[in-house]
Amino acid sequence: MPDLDWPAAARELAARFAERAARHDREGSFPFENFEDLRAAGFFALTVAEDRGGAGASRRTFLAVQEELARGDGSTALAFMMHSKFFGAQRESLTYPERWYNELCRGAVQDGWLCNTVATEEGLGSPAGGGLPDTVAVQVEGGWEITGRKTFTTMAPLLHYFIVLGRIDNPGGSPDIAQFVLYRDDPGVRIVETWDALGMRSTASHDFVMEACRVPADRLATRRPVNQADPRGAPGMAWFALGVAATTVGVAQAARDFAVAFARERTPNSQQTIKDYPGVRNRIGRIDLLLQRSRALIRDADDAWETSHGSQRRASEGQMSAMNRVAAAKIDTLNNCIEAVDLAMRVVGGVSLLKKNPIERYYRDVRAGLHNPPIEDRALEMLARAALDEPPPPLKANE
Ligand SMILES: Cc1cc2nc3c(=O)[nH]c(=O)nc-3n(C[C@H](O)[C@H](O)[C@H](O)COP(=O)(O)OP(=O)(O)OC[C@H]3O[C@@H](n4cnc5c(N)ncnc54)[C@H](O)[C@@H]3O)c2cc1C
Fold it and tell me: Among 63, 150, 175, 198, which is least packed by CB within 10 angstroms?
């Protein structure tokens, strides 16, 4: 793959995405043309391993790309992240059998095909909660019959590979948790266009319905007993959580840029430019502080992850493990960015509410990542567990 300056290339694309964002947001339509731009510029292979023909971009580059894309259009950035983070995490954890890993990499690099994990259900909520999916796969002659309904299937209109989480019941025993690779033209599969959301409206995160969908045996990609930890766990969390955080920083940065440009220009009749009011100056300063803090947290978590290879152990007593730094960075960034966009709205004033200005979209989009894993309560519980439940260091004898 050519040695590209990926963040700079993302910035160029983001400028085009920004011009299309308002229409897609208003219509709730999927920005096919943005994905065609991403595909044509080679981004579908960004995080695919080099030995599989991809660019093998580092997590740091991936995060920089996410932030740049989100400055143009949060929906496109968040949706595309679902594809990129999958390959980044797989490079670290290699949990898919060769047959599927090769196929998914080849599809991304050669055919320009997108993949995403399709896990959430109405009854289950987030699978991160540990519940059992209602989607069930039954072994039949020559393969599997799968029935279920998934919600939040981001990029549903364009996905090629739907990696579906389901359960396999074992007579007399506890069920297994499995992942199946499905295609949009599999029998019994359909997409129901349910996505009409407050924010990230152009992600087309529709429902994916499987009615007695019969597929060959080799579509089963992974299988584990329900009480066994998900082997994708830790790297999946690092790429996903930090990817969400970086995307959210991009959205908040766009709001900040709008507010700064506005404050420099806006001069109500016979008054001074609003940038000279102390309240406006204070808010802009606070916005930059919040964004800087978020980037520092993301960088810290990424560095810790890189040097510890995702170890759950603390670098030293009193410090957070790499995993907990990832969780801390994600939830703090979300809160910082929500606050930053709120401050930007206050700087701009009444016209921040108008649909003709993009800042009202940023205000809605910036919230979405709150509901991607880890959610705040689970992240705080991780931090509390490390402090309160893990074995304490040995007491030092008095000298
Ligand atoms: C824009 C967007 C795109 C998405 N794309 C995808 C996708 O492509 N594929 C996919 O599979 N999913 C996707 N999701 C779904 C997402 O990952 C979550 O599964 C979904 O938002 C539901 O999570 P939840 O925590 O609200 O659900 P629930 O599990 O129903 O939780 C609801 C609430 O209960 C509380 N709660 C639940 N469990 C706990 C706990 N253990 N401790 C404390 N409190 C708890 C929390 O307050 C939580 O907010 C997407 C979501 C969004 C917003």
Answer: 198
